[in-house]
Design goal:
This protein has a two-stranded antiparallel sheet with strand order 1-2. Strands 3-4 form a two-stranded antiparallel sheet. Helix 1 (28-45) crosses helix 2 (68-93), helix 3 packs antiparallel against helix 4 and helix 8 crosses helix 9 (332-340). The relative contact order is 0.06. The chain is mostly helical. It folds into 4 domains: 14-198, no CATH class; 208-237, 2-Layer Sandwich (Double Stranded RNA Binding Domain); 244-283, no CATH class; 301-319 and 333-385, no CATH class. It starts with 13 loop residues before the first strand and ends in a 12-residue tail after the last helix. The protein has helices spanning 28-45, 68-93, 133-146, 172-183, 200-211, 227-237, 256-263, 301-321, 332-340, 353-356, 373-385; strands at 14-15, 24-25, 53-54, 63-64, 157-159, 168-170, 188-189, 196-197, 215-216, 223-224, 244-245, 252-253, 272-273, 282-283. It is elongated, with a radius of gyration of 42 Å. Strand 11 (244-245) and strand 12 (252-253) form a beta hairpin.
Length: 397
């Protein structure tokens, strides 16, 4: 039998959400008995397989594997949680300007795990543990009601009778509030997300203030949950003030984190080092925030000169075979070869040939165009034999 019922200030209306059930109740004892009927039907619908039972309460998803008592505790907590959400809705109905909870509605019926029955630890209490939290909390409140207090002494000091507790409270109401620290009882829940709270004040102050954005920015459509969040929004989105300045350049920013990142660009020390043993390669983050590796391959001028000499030698042999006796002007072949040796410069040299009087030794050419198939093959063999040959070659028409 259910303990003496609490007197609720407003008419209670709780709805069953088991599967497709839509029954409503105004008394918790009737609601809990109705839920037990669903549990009996579940045992018939889901034959026991390693004590596994799936809760059919909407948006729950709980699966019991510890046996029938675990599922009973879980289902009764759904009933208790439904009552708390209904009480929370009554509170919010009196504050229509607060708005609705912005947290996902899919969490509204997710309840904590209940590993054991509820045990009363009041001194000399011999009540067996409860499966139903509603009956347990009513029982504990009965202990506070049974303490004798002189008439009119609303702040009469009362010692807590919970095991190993030496606290003293002033009056019966304070004792009931203190006992919730032992039982973890909640009095109200958010109807939107299902979050449970110890009293109405915490529901309105700690939860709805955070989960309902009602501080609107005067400069845009943005809303924020707190005044401090609104101030930060205006500072970073609508203000041009940049109080943090770099001591080495004209850069300025709105926060210290961005300034520290910028100062790294002025450091002469490499920010990143290769962690392969024996390798001393390093690189830095550039001003634009990108990390770049050196991908330019420099071919020596000797390679170009070697190819030019071989081309001259082949050209001379071909002229002799054709019986051509006309002497070619001095330097004509190298000049012609220079026209046919086209290349791609992948990076500007530090000093050009005109400035230094000679070609840069680090210049890279990819030689193509105007070569016979045999010459092109010879060039590829030389290119591949060099230990740093660029792969693949770049051909320019």
């Amino acid at each position: 039998m259910a303990p003496t019922k609490r007197i609720l200030k407003k008419t209670l209306k709780v709805d069953c959400e088991w599967s497709s059930c839509q029954e409503s109740f105004s008394r918790m004892d009737n609601f809990c008995r109705h839920a037990e009927g669903h549990l009996s039907a579940l045992v018939e619908e889901q034959p026991e397989e390693e004590n596994r039972r799936d809760c059919l309460w909407r948006d729950c998803g709980f699966c019991s594997v510890e046996g029938p008592q675990e599922m009973r505790r879980h289902l009764f907590f759904h009933c208790y949680h439904t009552k708390l959400k209904q009480l929370g809705q009554q509170v919010l109905n009196t504050r229509p300007k607060i708005g609705t909870c912005s947290i996902g509605y899919q969490n509204r019926n997710v309840i904590p795990e209940i590993p054991d029955n509820f045990i009363c630890l009041w001194e000399e209490c011999e009540q067996p543990p409860y499966e139903n939290p509603e009956w347990f909390y009513r029982h504990v409140e009965m202990h506070s009601q049974c303490i004798e207090i002189p008439a009119g002494e609303y702040e009469f000091p009362i010692r807590c009778g919970w095991k190993d507790c030496e606290a003293t409270t002033k009056g019966r109401a304070k004792l009931r509030e203190h006992l919730r620290s032992h039982t973890q009882e909640k009095l109200v829940a958010c109807p939107g997300c299902g979050g449970m709270y110890a009293n109405n004040t915490k529901l309105l102050r700690d939860h709805m203030r955070t989960h309902v954005s009602h501080y609107k920015c005067p400069l845009c459509d943005m809303t924020c949950p707190t005044p401090s969040a609104l101030r930060n929004h205006i500072k970073f989105r609508h203000s041009n003030e940049r109080p943090y300045s770099c001591e080495y350049c004209e850069y300025s920013c709105k926060n210290l984190v961005d300034l520290r990142k910028h100062l790294d660009t002025h450091s002469s020390e490499p920010a990143f080092h290769c962690d392969v043993p024996g390798c001393g390669f390093t690189y830095k983050q550039h001003d634009d925030g990108f990390l770049r590796l050196q991908l330019i391959r420099y071919e020596s001028v000797e390679l170009t000169e070697q190819l030019m000499r071989e081309r001259q030698s082949r050209q001379g042999e071909e002229d002799e075979d054709d019986g051509m006796n006309e002497e070619e002007p001095s330097g004509a072949a190298p000049s012609e070869l220079q026209v046919e040796l086209r290349g791609v410069l992948l990076e500007e040299p530090e000093a050009s040939a005109e400035e230094g009087g000679q070609e840069e030794e680090g210049m890279m050419y990819v030689l193509t165009g105007g070569l016979s198939p045999a010459e092109d093959s010879d060039m590829q063999q030389i290119h591949d034999s060099d230990q740093g040959a660029l792969q693949p070659c770049v051909h320019v028409p």
